[in-house]
Amino acid sequence: MNRKSENLAVIGAQWGDEGKGKIVDLLCDRFDVVARFGGGHNAGHTVRFRDKHYTVKLIPSGIFHSDKLCILGNGMVIDPEALLEEIDKLRSVGVTIESNLKISDAAHCILPYHKALDMAREEVAGEAKIGTTGRGIGPAYETKVSRFGIRIGDLLDSQVLREKIDFACAEKNPLLKTVYGKPTFDPGALFDAYTRFGQILADRITNGPVLINEKIREGKSVMFEGAQATMLDIDHGTYPFVTSSNCSVGGVATGLGVAPKHIHRVIGVAKAYTTRVGSGPFPTELSDAVGEQIRKRGNEFGTVTGRPRRTGWLDLPVLRTASMLNGLDSIALTKLDVLDDFEEIPVCVDYNIRGKRWSTVPSFAVAQGDYKPVFRTFKGWRKSIVGITSIDDLPQQARDYIRFIEDETGCPISVISTGPRREETIVR
Length: 428
Ligand code: IMP
Fold this sequence. Notes:
This protein is of the alpha/beta class. The chain has helices at 20-27, 80-92, 112-125, 137-146, 158-179, 187-201, 208-217, 250-256, 289-297, 316-326, 396-409; strands at residues 8-12, 33-36, 45-49, 52-56, 69-72, 77-78, 101-104, 108-109, 205-206, 222-225, 265-271, 274-276, 310-312, 314-315, 330-334, 344-353, 356-358, 371-379, 413-417, 425-427. The longest helix has 22 residues, at 158-179. The protein binds inosinic acid.
């Protein structure tokens, strides 16, 4: 992580919202390029800039450092309207967005029918819904995989764009109307809007893999900024309650066109407890006053949708799985200060699933009720650790907690966050 030419992937180790934005921002100085490899505006990274907090959804958090090149990779799904809004908003507060932001021409576009389908399906699913962010992410990835997707580069070719939009509307409109009873889309209006988006974005659209590999050849260092997290990965997460991209480290290679040998180090970001938004299994969930206390103290409300996050104790099978799948070199442990007030801090060491002990997350779907977390309880430190910057200044109980996580995951904890500000961090 220290050598300038080393590339680092920053990956969510739980179900998202671990505080990746702060970690990326903190480590940014050491890198020349910051690149996103997957997801879309379902992500929400909060970064402090000139004493205020801002949320970026599509643009890499590196954008707050004007000397970094930021790349939106081919593995992303991009709603051009949301991207332009984000650019305008950041520019209005003084963030430089000129030639420092580039978009891969092979990234896929989200169109309004994707969003409409996402929301219609969730509505019909009722209790069985995934709890998506409603941004059209899943349907956009589906169109990509079906090979009928509209790529960012297509926005610059009016004939291709028109044909693809006409085909998409001919296919999606009857689905929306007859299956879901929803309004349809006018292909002409979509063509006009997406042509305009292409004109505005034209100078940023480039061959992403060529650009990033050129930088690597020049000896520039790259930070691969993960969005969402390992447990939301389409292949490795708690399927079907996942997002639709590979948000664990494998996504870096496919989502940017970077060979695995260029990913030198991987840091996993994990909260000192666990949260998740949306539906799906959450073995250590606290549906009581303690959970509410964590939610309040940790301000656990969704950055993108504002939804209250589900909260629970730290889950080591999740972290072990994330460590294995991503080959984590180290962990950045965030929000340790949120646990300041607790007399006792239970940690899930294993699951008991129908009488069998599991130390990692099973690959098959397990109903919430079938998970019986096996806890080990730690003594709380019961004093404020907010703003502490040296491990030696942490209370012994907090150090015991950290050491236990390191021992159980086999992963050193290299960064500990003791508050939302950049300076409120222990870097080891
Ligand atoms: P989608 O990505 O909008 O399709 O949502 C699928 C699942 O992933 C839902 O449970 C979302 O709440 C969750 N999800 C997607 N993006 C994020 C994120 O950035 N943080 C946390 N959860 C997310």
